Amino acid sequence: MISGNARLAGVLGWPVSHSRSPALHNFWLARYRIDGAYLPLPVTPADFVTAVHGIRAAGFRGANVTIPHKEAALAICTHLHETAHRAGAVNTLTFTQDGIHGTNTDGTGFLANLRANGINPAAGPALLLGAGGAARAIAAALLHQGVRVTVANRTQERLATLATSLPEIGPLAWNQRHAALADHALLVNTTSAGMKGAPALDLDLTHAPPELVVADIVYVPLATPLLTAAAARGLRTVGGLGMLLHQAVPGFSAWFGVTPQIDQEVFDLIAADIPAT
Ligand code: ATR
Q1: What is the DSSP secondary-structure string of 34-90?
Q2: pLDDT per residue as tens digits for the range 61-100
Q3: 196 is catalytic
């Protein structure tokens, strides 16, 4: 039920119809009997700044920001959290009387999902494949935990850009990725390879050590070819959907005043329309 006092939030993206965030936040709103609503907000890049000021003026508590606005959102914030600064992107906006607060919960969501799966992110060095926005957020969060982070990317240019933003990372040539598996405790695919309709990630796990944890941020399908190959070798795996659920928690908590729980029911609800393989 939505009254005249309802708290409002939403997700700004272009397009936004694929976003699972409205289903997730509205499930939590119903579960905790909160007078509120969370809306999909399709906004073009040209309209982004106007839209943020508009929803703030209309009393929204805040919003999530998704592709392609995460970098543009940095510039609009009056208060930038360290996570956003280090990630070079904002995925969560909170409006208060003193301004627009921007944070990035992708990296902390990734870490929270590892912990929820019984994995200590700081157990050993991490090898990240990919050097886009997701890699930067995850690398920043791992570095913050004191983890040594190595990054390999298919093309050199993007890796060099990432290394300029996060000089603590150890850049690795793409053709060294197989040899490097032996020296790492955690492998993270941050590329879009393995997504439904895209080619699988070109990675041979033959020489992966038995303790290696394999994480994928791709969650369509739930079991990517990488995760399936890792599980077949007896390696521990962590899928991408959990990160999506965990990155949503701080925003919901800030806008609606309740820290929502992630359990099997929420996972199953969001997983219901995602192909398993
Ligand atoms: P962003 O995360 O910034 O939105 P993206 O276009 O989705 O960017 O690409 C993310 C990462 O996936 C990039 O590092 C990209 O590698 P390149 O810089 O070489 O383009 C990587 N990527 C996409 N498809 C890939 C594939 N089939 N194999 C390896 N890396 C791939």
Answers
A1: -SEEEEEEE--GGGHHHHHHHHHHTT--EEEE-TT-TTHHHHH-SEE-HHHHHHT--
A2: 999 999 999 999 999 999 999 999 999 999 999 999 999 9
A3: no
H/E segment holding residue 22: helix 21-31
0.70 exceeded by the pTM? yes
Return the residue whose CA atom lies nearest to atom 21 of ligand 1. Answer: 191
> For residue 50, what are the contacts with CB-CB under 8 A and spacing of at least 6?
none
E strands, the chain, in order:
7-13, 36-42, 62-65, 79-80, 92-96, 99-103, 126-129, 149-152, 170-172, 186-189, 213-216, 236-238
Name the token pair of 218: 């791709």
**Cα distance from N-terminal residue to C-terminal residue, the chain:** 37
Mutational test site, ligand 1, from 67, 192, 224, max ligand atoms within 8 Å of CB: 192
